[in-house]
Design goal:
By secondary structure, the chain is mainly beta. Helix content is about 10%, strand content about 55%. The protein is built from three helices and 19 strands. It has a 16-stranded antiparallel barrel. A hairpin with a 5-residue loop joins strand 15 and strand 16. The longest helix is centred in the first third of the chain and has 17 residues. The two termini are about 30 Å apart.
Length: about 400
C-alpha cells in the first residue's frame, strides 16, 4: 500500500511538471510540406476491491496494478497543401498484471497468465482534401467511422476507461484476428479502407458525414469474404462539433461550446467467419447506432445506443444491445486549470436466445470521479471509482469487480 501511495505521488508530481508541455516538434520542407512528431501516454494505478469470480479461489483482495494503459508516438504532416498523412504506433498495457480489475469490471475477465504489451501500428492513412467541405478522401489503416465511443480517442473521454460500446462494437463489427505464433491478438477497431467524408457548416447548424468501404481481414478466409460498409451522419445544432473536417472526436470543450450533435451509424458486412468463435460462419453482420453529444458551457452530456445483429450460417441469429450515458461539469479554477466531476453508466445486454458471441453474459458498469485538466488534454490527472458486474459469467453465477483508479495523461 505504501508503494502504491508513493507511485501516485510521483505521478502527480510528473503531471505538474508536464503542465507546461507544448506541442511536439514540427518541421517544414517548403510550401505545403511539413512533419510533426508527437507523443502521448496514460499511466494508470488501479487498486481492486470486491473482486469475485466464480470458480476461482485464493483471489488476492485489495490488489494493486501500475502500468502504461495507453502509449502512443507517431508522425503526421502534409505532402502537399491538401494531402495530409498520419502514422502512429501503440504500446498499450505495458506492465499490466493478470486479473486486472479494470478488465474484469468491463467483462474481459482474465484469471491466469501474464499480459504483455504488443507494439503495433495504430493508424496509417492519407487524407486528400479534394474539397475541404464536401470531399475528403481517406485511404489506409484506420477506424471505420461507426460507433461514437469507438471512434473517440481514449485520451478524450469523460470516464476513466472508455465506455462499453467501444469494446462490444469493435468485437462485433471488426472482430479479433488469430493470435498466431506470438500469442497476441488485437481488437483495436482498425481495418484497411477508403472513406469519403465531409463537413458542411451553415448559420446555426452543421452536417458531418462519412461513408467507407473496407476489407475486414479478421472475418475473412479463402472461402468467406465480403466488404465492410460503414456510414455515419451527424447533425449539429448550435456550435459545430468540429471547426474543420477530421477523423477525431472529443466529449468536452471546457465550456467553449454551446451545441448538440446527434449521430446515426450503420455498418454492414455479408458472409464471413468468426475465428474467435470456432471459425463459425455468418451470412450477415450489422450494427445500427445512435449517439448524442450536448455541450452547454460547463455541462457535458454524452450518450450512445447500439444494436448489434448477426445472422449465423446455421440459421440462428442474435441481436445484442449496448449503451452508455455520461455527464460532467467543468469548474474553471483561478489559475485557468479545470476541475471536472464526471459520472458514467453503461450496459451490454446480449440476446436472450444465447446465440450471441458472449452467450448470456450481461455486463453492467458505472463510474464516478474527477478529472483535473492541468493543461487541458495535454496534462491531466484522473481519479475515479468504478464497479462492474458480469451476469451469468459461469452458468447462472455472476462475476464482480470494483476498483479505485488514478491516472496521469500527457500529450506532447
Amino acid at each position: 500500500m505504501r508503494k502504491f501511495g508513493l507511485t501516485m505521488a510521483g505521478l502527480g508530481a510528473a503531471a505538474l511538471i508536464a503542465g507546461t508541455a507544448n506541442a511536439g516538434p514540427k518541421f517544414y520542407f517548403g510550401e505545403g510540406k511539413d512533419l510533426e512528431i508527437f507523443l502521448m501516454g496514460q499511466i494508470w494505478g488501479v487498486y481492486g476491491t470486491n473482486v469475485e469470480i466464480p470458480g476461482q479461489t485464493n483471489l488476492k483482495e485489495n490488489k494493486g496494478d501500475i502500468y502504461i494503459r495507453r502509449g502512443r508516438f507517431g508522425f503526421k504532416g502534409h505532402l502537399m497543401k491538401n494531402l495530409s498523412w498520419k502514422i502512429w504506433f501503440a504500446h498499450d498495457n505495458l506492465g499490466r498484471d493478470d486479473l486486472n480489475p479494470v478488465d474484469a469490471a468491463r467483462g474481459a475477465v482474465k484469471t491466469g497468465g501474464l499480459n504483455y504489451s504488443k507494439f503495433e501500428v495504430w493508424d496509417a492513412y492519407f487524407t486528400w482534401a479534394v474539397d475541404k467541405q464536401f470531399a475528403n478522401i481517406s485511404l489506409g489503416y484506420f477506424r471505420p467511422q461507426i460507433g461514437k465511443e469507438s471512434i473517440t480517442s481514449g485520451f478524450a473521454v469523460l470516464s476513466f476507461e472508455k465506455g462499453l460500446p467501444n469494446f462490444y462494437v469493435r468485437r462485433h463489427i471488426i472482430g479479433k484476428p488469430d493470435a498466431g505464433s506470438t500469442g497476441f491478438s488485437s481488437a483495436n477497431g482498425r481495418i484497411f479502407l477508403v472513406n469519403w467524408g465531409g463537413l458542411y457548416k451553415s448559420s446555426g447548424w452543421s452536417l458531418n458525414w462519412n461513408l467507407g468501404v473496407g476489407d475486414n481481414q479478421n472475418y475473412t478466409d479463402k472461402s468467406n469474404w465480403s466488404p465492410l460498409w460503414s456510414a455515419r451522419v451527424a447533425l449539429s445544432i448550435g456550435d459545430p462539433e468540429m471547426k474543420k473536417y477530421k477523423l477525431g472526436y472529443k466529449q468536452t470543450y471546457f465550456g467553449k461550446r454551446n451545441g448538440v450533435t446527434i449521430g446515426l451509424n450503420y455498418g454492414h458486412q455479408g458472409e464471413g467467419i468468426d475465428r474467435k468463435k470456432s471459425n463459425k460462419q455468418f451470412d450477415k453482420n450489422e450494427i445500427y447506432g445512435i449517439d448524442i453529444l450536448a455541450n452547454y458551457g460547463p455541462v457535458d452530456l454524452f450518450g450512445e445506443y447500439d444494436i448489434l445483429k448477426r445472422d449465423w450460417s446455421d440459421g440462428t441469429d442474435y441481436s445484442d444491445k449496448v449503451w452508455t450515458v455520461k455527464a460532467a461539469y467543468s469548474f474553471k479554477l483561478p489559475n485557468g486549470q479545470i476541475l471536472q466531476p464526471a459520472v458514467a453508466y453503461g450496459v451490454f445486454d446480449p440476446d436472450s436466445n444465447g446465440n450471441s458471441i458472449y452467450g448470456k453474459k450481461k455486463n453492467t458498469i458505472w463510474d464516478v470521479g474527477v478529472n483535473w485538466y492541468i493543461q487541458k488534454q495535454r496534462a491531466k490527472l484522473i481519479l475515479h471509482y468504478a464497479s462492474g458486474k458480469v451476469e451469468n459469467y459461469s452458468g447462472t453465477q455472476d462475476a464482480k469487480s470494483s476498483y479505485l483508479g488514478f491516472g496521469f495523461q500527457f500529450k506532447i
